[in-house]
């Protein structure tokens, strides 16, 4: 279900123009990210899709129909909406929050709650959280519940207004991963608002960069925006390090994964060795590093280890491999599979060698 903005303007009585003749098309089944500085009209543009804001002029179409011809309440029930801090009802349980829209749409209560239970699993939350209240959840868990609530009635369109900006960076990355996983399964048409250019480049199939005053500066794929910014404003907004961001679009498939000596948590009789050893748990997941010339009296515990840095998941862009190698105390980036099990390691020099062989994959400077 495509979304189209046709010369859409939003002006207020005091003369402020929030959105100025915006024209762009959000293709069916894709994520389009609206990004730009404060005051660029990105949230206003988003809210015009579900008529929470009415345009002054121009037309917003959803699946070819002008949204102004739809009843606002019915329109909103057919469009998922996720905001900062999740916006959950504090006096309702998690399951009741998720079931809100289906019940408003006339679903039987039992059917709506069954759908809510199903969606808890879909967004990666344990079933036991269903009986809790929002205040009993972490910020990241609340945001996942907010996503589940937006998906409850299976809307074809999902609007997301800076949904992850209020959580810490580690949780935020996990939520971004979860959104990409869900999108690969569900194929929704998503409009996502953020002020974070890294988030825009990571999530978007297409990225719309807006100027202050609501003018569209550039609309294209993340790679196009990074490699070919149309003017100094876009170049400045995406940053001088856009060449590094461009690594997000270069595959790491040519980077050779090397074996690494491993030890297991709980293992005994570990004597000093001249090299770094990767510690893993019983599931094969990396837990940290045992430094050279370090031995352990008794069972190996996590307190004996050095933190391992970031992990690189096989099959994802090469930027993650470089991050893993540079953040590791051993200068060895740990490579994991989709289940988080250690496969081996890569070095920064191996990654840089691949980058040098494929300069076309990195954004122009």
From TrEMBL:
Record key words, sorted: ATP-binding, Nucleotide-binding, Transport
MF (Gene Ontology): ATP binding
InterPro entries cross-referenced by the UniProt entry: AAA+_ATPase, ABC_transporter-like_ATP-bd, ABC_transporter-like_CS, P-loop_NTPase
Keyword ATP-binding attributed: yes
PROSITE patterns, per database record: ABC_TRANSPORTER_1 (PS00211), ABC_TRANSPORTER_2 (PS50893)
ABC transporter domain residues: 3-238
Family: Belongs to the ABC transporter superfamily.
PANTHER family: OSMOPROTECTANT IMPORT ATP-BINDING PROTEIN OSMV (PTHR43117)
Name of the protein: ABC transporter ATP-binding protein
Organism phylogeny: Bacteria, Bacillati, Actinomycetota, Actinomycetes, Pseudonocardiales
């Amino acid at each position: 279900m495509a979304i189209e903005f046709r010369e859409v303007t939003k002006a207020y009585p005091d003369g402020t123009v929030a959105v100025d003749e915006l024209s762009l098309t959000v293709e069916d089944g894709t994520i389009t990210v609206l990004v730009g500085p404060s005051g660029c009209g990105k949230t206003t543009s988003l809210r015009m899709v579900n008529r929470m804001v009415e345009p002054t002029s121009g037309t917003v179409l959803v699946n070819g129909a002008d949204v102004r011809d739809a009843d606002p309440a019915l329109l909103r029930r057919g469009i998922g909406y996720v905001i900062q801090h999740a916006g959950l009802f504090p006096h309702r349980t998690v399951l009741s929050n998720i079931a809100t829209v289906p019940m408003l749409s006339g679903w039987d209560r039992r059917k709506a709650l069954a759908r809510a239970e199903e969606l808890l699993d879909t967004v990666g939350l344990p079933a036991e959280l269903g009986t809790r209240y929002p205040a009993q959840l972490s910020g990241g868990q609340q945001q996942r519940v907010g996503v589940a609530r937006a998906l409850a009635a299976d809307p074809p369109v999902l609007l997301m207004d800076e949904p992850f900006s209020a959580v810490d960076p580690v949780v935020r990355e996990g939520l971004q991963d979860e959104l990409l996983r869900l999108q690969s399964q569900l194929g929704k048409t998503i409009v996502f608002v953020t002020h974070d250019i890294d988030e825009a480049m990571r999530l978007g199939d297409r990225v719309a960069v807006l100027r202050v005053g609501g003018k569209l500066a550039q609309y294209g794929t993340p790679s196009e925006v990074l490699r070919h910014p149309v003017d100094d404003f876009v170049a400045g907004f995406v940053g001088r390090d856009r060449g590094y961001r461009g690594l997000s679009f270069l595959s790491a498939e040519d980077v050779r994964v090397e074996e690494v000596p491993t030890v297991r948590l709980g293992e005994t009789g570990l004597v000093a060795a001249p090299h770094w050893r990767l510690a893993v748990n019983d599931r094969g997941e990396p837990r940290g590093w045992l430094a050279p010339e370090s031995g352990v009296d008794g069972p190996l515990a996590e307190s004996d280890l050095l933190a391992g840095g970031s992990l690189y998941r096989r099959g994802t862009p090469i930027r993650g491999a470089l991050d893993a190698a540079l953040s590791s105390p051993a200068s060895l980036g740990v490579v994991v599979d989709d289940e988080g099990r250690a496969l081996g390691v890569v070095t920064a020099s191996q990654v840089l060698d691949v980058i040098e062989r494929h300069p076309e994959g990195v954004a122009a400077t």
